[in-house]
């Protein structure tokens, strides 16, 4: 076996922050996440919401073996000694009925104060409570969710074409989101409001998910960190043992081109989208 064919070395971190996996959605990149979990180890893993997509599962049940594999992989890490904290989001809000409960070694919490190795504190929460659309207009949120499905549908189709052309993975949905003025304004406002909440909690920073936009930046003296997602960007936040935070991607970590989309999924998602529109 050549060096190129060998598995990449395992990277060890103090803490991993992962959000917006959306298990139960056909857009979830479960295979990429499994690859990521195989080559990373952490003392603590914090799941920052929307790990399970309850909204989509209510509409249409979809739970392939890869979803079970992700859950089993996390449970196995818990059994081996990793502390795993699950902070529910809006798509897995059913978990918010179980604060303080342990499931197979996974702790459920509404929010969490994380103390870094460098002594800095971070408020960790999903972030949907600061999204006015989700909080005050559930119908609009569902309509927005449907529109996002359409963007993901286009994303999968383009990825299949790019794969046939030998081009690497590229996220249309992530690109489109950043081209829409209202979306960009929403992202900026969301970041500011979440940073304000961290300031009220006397935390040095905030770590959240929800908007599928991975970034690390300072906002008026507060460190704002968004974990991204495993639908578009396939990103996570890693804390090193000196307290340094790093935004890492599956593609960079694995060294393998992200080009695995199957054209059969395009047909399945198109049929699903059309049937929902007709309903």
UniProtKB/TrEMBL annotation:
Instruction: Enumerate the UniProt keywords alphabetically.
Output: Cell inner membrane, Cell membrane, Manganese, Membrane, Metal-binding
Q: Which InterPro entries match?
A: Calcineurin-like_PHP, LpxH-like, Metallo-depent_PP-like
Q: From what organism does this protein derive?
A: Rhizobium giardinii
Instruction: Give a Gene Ontology cellular component term annotated to this protein.
Output: membrane
User: Calcineurin-like phosphoesterase domain location, by residue?
Assistant: 13-213
Gene3D superfamilies in alphabetical order: 3.60.21.10
Q: Which Pfam families did the record assign?
A: Metallophos
Report what the protein is called: UDP-2,3-diacylglucosamine pyrophosphatase LpxH
Q: Which GO terms describe its biological process?
A: lipid A biosynthetic process
């Amino acid at each position: 076996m050549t060096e190129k064919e060998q598995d990449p070395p395992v990277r060890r971190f103090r803490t991993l922050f992962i959000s917006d996996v959306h298990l139960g959605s056909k857009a979830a990149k479960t295979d990429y996440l499994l690859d990521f979990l195989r080559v990373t180890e952490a003392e603590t893993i914090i799941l920052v919401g929307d790990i399970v997509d309850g909204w989509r599962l209510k509409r249409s049940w979809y739970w392939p073996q890869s979803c079970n594999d992700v859950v089993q992989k996390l449970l196995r890490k818990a059994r081996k000694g990793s502390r795993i904290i699950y902070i529910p989001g809006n798509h897995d809000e059913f978990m918010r009925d179980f604060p303080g409960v342990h499931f197979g070694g996974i702790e459920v919490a509404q929010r969490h104060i994380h103390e870094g190795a460098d002594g800095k504190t971070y408020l960790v929460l999903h972030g949907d409570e600061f999204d006015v659309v989700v909080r005050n207009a559930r119908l609009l949120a569902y309509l927005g969710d449907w529109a996002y499905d359409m963007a993901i549908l286009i994303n999968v189709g383009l990825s299949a074409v790019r794969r046939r052309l030998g081009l690497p993975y590229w996220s249309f949905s992530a690109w489109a989101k950043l081209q829409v003025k209202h979306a960009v304004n929403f992202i900026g406002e969301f970041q500011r409001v979440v940073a304000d909440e961290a300031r009220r909690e006397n935390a040095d920073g905030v770590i959240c998910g929800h908007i599928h936009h991975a970034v690390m930046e300072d906002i008026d003296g507060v460190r704002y960190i968004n974990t991204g997602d495993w639908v578009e960007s396939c990103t996570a936040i890693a804390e090193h043992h000196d307290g340094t935070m790093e935004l890492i991607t599956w593609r960079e970590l694995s060294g393998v081109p992200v080009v695995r989309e199957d054209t059969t999924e395009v047909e399945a998602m198109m049929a699903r989208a059309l049937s929902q529109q007709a309903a």
